[in-house]
Amino acid sequence: MSARKVAAVTPPVGITADDLPTWQTNGIVWAMAEAGGVVFAGGTFSSVRPPDAPAGTGEQQAVNFVALDAATGAPTSCKLSFTIGSGTATVRALAVSPDGKTLYAGGQFGAVNGVGMSNVAAIDIASCTPKPSFKVAASATVRALAATDDAVYMGGDFTSLEGQSRQYFGAVNTGGDLLPWKADADEPGRAVEVTPDGSKVLLGGDFFTVNGTNSHALAVANASTGALVKAYGGGFIPTSSVVKDITTDATGFYTGNEGTGGGVFDGRIAVNLSDLNQRWRDTCLGATQAVEVHESVLYSGSHAHDCSSMGEFPNQRRKHLLAESVDDPTLLGWFPDTNDGLGEQIGPRVMATASKGGTDYLWVGGEFTTVNGSGQQGLTRFAGAPDTGAPSVPLVNASSTEPGQVDVRWQSSLDLDDSKLTYRVYKNGSSTPVHTVGGSSLPWVRPQLTFTDTDVTPGSTYTYRITASDGTNTSAKSATQTVTVAASAEAYPARVKADGATLYWRYDEAGGQFAADDSGTNNSGVHRNAPSYRATPAAVPGGSTAVGYNGIDEYTYSDRKHSRPASYSIETWFKTTTTQGGKLVGFGNRTQEASSTYDKHLYMTNDGRIVFGVTSSFARTINTGAGLNDGRWHHVVATQGSSGMRLYVDGTLRASNLLVTSSANYDGYWHVGGDALNSSWPSTPTSDYFAGQIDETAIYPGVLSGSQISAHYNLRTRP
Q1: pTM above 0.90, yes or no
Q2: CB under 8 Å to 328, separation ≥6 — which residues?
Q3: Is the distance from CB of 131 to CB of 112 less than 8 angstroms?
């Protein structure tokens, strides 16, 4: 498939994330195939309507089938109706013959355009009419089809074809005559694909045996006889998971998998055609329904919500469309999205590629009702070119705490098909940037970038704005940041940085999700649910402000994942009158929802005590006296290392346990303002979230000494 190359997307991605105007269905699309620049879509629906049209507007009848122009997204003149005498008719599988002349359809139906059929049919594409000579009686739903020049392979719920026993898989010739090919399974088939050389048939489904041999969910059969060529037993796919889709390219085949219950496998597997052994697998959770290869990239439809097991995003909002290299399961920077939609609320169900007029298209069908946040039901498509989506506008924070320099920090922008962007910093309204730098980002990792401007004069005021570009599209300029250069160094931040903080949030943001890091390590955070910005007076003198949390759902988490620190110090200032307690600072394994594993935290009890807790075999805590919810600023530091746990308040050691030197071992994220707590922690507060103000949060990769902590506290009165 040849196509115009996209200059703006990040290789190897060759499809943009910009959805194109496409006619919609009023139900679920289960199947797709393509021939000659026409995309055929089958499913469970009764009409189609124009792009952007709400349900019931401009609808045309389309009984479980529609043919659409790949380049325009509009219906063609080909009209087919798949019906049944009783029950609900549905089309579950479509496949085109290698010569592009015949469309094979499978599902649950009794007629096509009034011509009697039994769950499988052949359509002459040129005339858009069913072939009455192709009469194959399948005893139940046909869910998968693959065609060669000589045979049509099928899988599904049936246990007989043409009155003869065929357990969930079978084959007929192109005239509809039953073939002796047998690959009998013990449970339904859901996917069938023929290898590029035509010698093997790839089988996927619910089964545990094929032709009496143990092979769960996946098997490779001889294309002539059905005899097993490769069985996948021994837990290759867990018994709680099945194969929903299979696709191939010149070197491999790829499976989409769905599981239920605990210990499931929901991701994708790449298998070499040369030896039929695994090349790679990903272990994202969120059942995969569809896989499709385009130019060495495997695109998939799923509802992935947790890819932490493979070093990607932790459990969070579902992402329905993903891309990976056929050589590596690392997620690539392609993130258009749908919603869960109707039915089982899975989202995408099927994918197909098409080419017309020199442009490649990736089509997606399913049960979704939105695409990229806008209404669009059942069908959508994306093109190889052009890329029209600009990156998000950078969120910027600028400050000066030392004479002769301004630090301009920004959260890297998000572009749904460009993970590598170029940023330009503009000073004092100039049209020429004073700084240009590249950076990478993904939806769940938006690293901070920093430009330090030393071409400034103490006491003078400067303005800064930033743009992000993918090489073709450029964002609007960020909001203006106005900074007056410090005449002398601010004592408090200078001491925090000198003592080695590797995360230092000062909470000077005027709004948005970006929490800037002043430590020099670009260890920024993300504000969730819009806490109160620029609260004053702040905890320490100078130009900084504080952040206020509502005690319900507002918090801030670190954008960067961290390994368990062997020794560390947690420092923050807080002010509150709450009687519901809440977590001030903690370490947890999730970001956009409450963590399931968490410790190394400071929380307040309902009566105003501060508890420092870690998990070391079980919950270990030390705590202060009550009454710190008195509406005044307090300074708290917790340390742990080889000399145990210590807890300081307002510069004074308040509690210690010298025997507890370890904490729970997991990778995680720092949270401020709230995260999970449960009754295993002593004096669990009413709320997991803190209601009050927090300022000057810092994390150190070692244990601060008592004198260092006292020095920090004593700087509260020094400018």
Answers
A1: yes
A2: 280
A3: no
Alpha-carbon torsion angle 504, 509, 511, 512, nearest 10:
-40
Q: What is the pLDDT of residues 634-682, one digit of tens each?
A: 999 999 999 999 999 999 999 999 999 999 999 999 999 999 999 999 9
Q: What is the pLDDT of residues 279-296, one digit of tens each?
A: 999 999 999 999 999 999
**Residue 261 confidence class, pLDDT cut points 50, 70, 90:** confident
Pairing, β 319-325 against β 568-575:
unpaired
Read off the tokens for 263: 């210990």
Tell me the pLDDT tens digit for each residue of 167-207: 999 999 999 999 999 999 999 999 999 999 999 999 999 99
CA 689-690-692 angle, to 5 degrees, is 150
Secondary structure of residue 322 in the 3-state scheme: strand
Half-sphere exposure of 455 (CA within 13 A, CB side): 6
Of 25, 91, 21, 19, residue with least CA distance to 58:
25
- List the one residue out of 7, 50, 19 whose CA is nearest residue 361: 19
The whole-number pLDDT of residue 2 equals 45
Which amino acid is present at 516?
Answer: A
Contact in structure between 143 and 190 (CB atoms under 8 Å): yes
Strands 644-649 and 634-641: antiparallel
The residues facing 644 across adjacent strands are 641
- Cα torsion for 206, 211, 216, 222, to the nearest 10°? -100
Tokens of 51: 């792009």
CB contact at 8 A, 256 and 300: yes
d(CA 161, CA 171): 9
Spatial separation of the C-alpha atoms in residues 579 and 77, rounded to whole Å = 69
DSSP 669-686: EEEESB----TTSTT--S
